[in-house]
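Pinned message: reference record for ABC-type multidrug transport system, ATPase and permease component
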Amino acid sequence: MNNIVLKAVGITLFASALTGCVGSNAVTGKVMKFNLEAVDNRYARAGVNFLLAPVYGITSAADYVVFNSLEFWTGKNPITDSPHIFDSKVETHIKVNDDLDPSLQEAPISPISNNRQIDTGEMIQADENSVKMHIVYNNGETAVLEGFKNGENVSYYMDGKLVAQTTIAKLAALNSHAV
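Predicted structure (tokens):
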């Protein structure tokens, strides 16, 4: 039974990796940027590149299997937020999109990244066991974040839906590291 599960997982990973062979290679690009910024001399950069060879192998594998696959299926790279190279608008030799269903012309899954940021947030302490924060995002959307203390536990709700739980001890530990 375990053998069948392992084979199924292996085949699934292999098949999904095949979709990721082309992409922006964002993780490897970050290492390349570091390599360029490490020193200003081309020969020294070549030396750094040689030393980073094992890192490039790991980042290339991460790009190939994970990040390029995410980029392919969502249409955007989760690291750079840039569109997938296959969605580039270029003059092509063979035109097939006009003959296809529109669902086959774009990435099938919505991008994972969420580009909205908090513009303003107003925190109100209702009582000793609850706080409420009214949030306005940079795109105009609003939300309400609420935190409720129940004994040693704290639960957080976003627009009435439970999004996180923690304890007073964990919050205190985080607070002591922040100081």
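Pinned by admin. Summary line: The chain has two domains: 2-104, 118-178.
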